[in-house]
Amino acid sequence: MQQSLFESQYDNTPTQLDMPDADLKYYPNFIAASEAAILMQALYQSLDWRQEQITLYGKTFDVPRLQAWYGDKNARYQYSNLSLRPLPWSSVLLALKQKCENASNSHFNSVLANLYRHGQDGMGRHADNEPELGQQPVIASLSFGEERNLDFYHNATKDKVRLPLHNGSLLVMSGNTQKYWQHGMAKTKKTLAPRINLTFRYIQN
Q: pLDDT tens, 185-197?
């Protein structure tokens, strides 16, 4: 990975999504397409992808995607009875973390990487509201590869908002977003190329 990949200026003009009880900023061209393609390949080949299992209502299931957890040594994360110990930061992840920190004016000490191999990989409806994330967590979600739809569902009104996440885009979720909204990525029978998503976050210890 050449250092020059991280020297270009990102598009720092976000779109503020008009959603009640939420604070979401979307940067559709955060990373240039040419750089995004190289980064996608580097992440695909270098991260320690694993097929995790979660337990819900007494039953154990394979997570419908591959995952990897990186971060500071004490940034442990737990959800759905799955406990994740962070792997040491790679130089690529550190550089991307800094770009996301600069854009969001936040500090992150960990990242959850998700590899959606095809259309049959997805993510169930959930909120990133675990206690170790704090009351109003800032989540910076960076996307590479195939465009996929992220669906938001309001807990009270049941309103649904669909956001296509472009290759090289950044979505920053903050404020009360996790309190009032759930989000998920539906599976599809369509033939889709792989997608990698990096969600940078801060784990409170």
A: 999 999 999 999 9
